[in-house]
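Blinded run. Sample ID left blank on purpose so nobody reads anything into the name before looking at the predicted structure. Input follows.
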Amino acid sequence: MNASRVWKLLGLAGVAGVAAGGVVVARDQRRRSRMTPEQVRDKLHARVAEAQGLDERDAAT
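Blinded prediction complete.
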């Protein structure tokens, strides 16, 4: 396999990776846009509470 073919394949793989990343971002954006501000706030509070609980358990061991 010559060098130009390798670069072409790497370029195509990069384009495919960017496209896949865009799909993931778009899906996440659609999910977030369906949430109300109250739902976002509740989710963030739950994540903070979970993180604080993990920190307290780590300190106790």
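Unblinding after everyone has recorded impressions. Helices lie at 3-33, 37-60.
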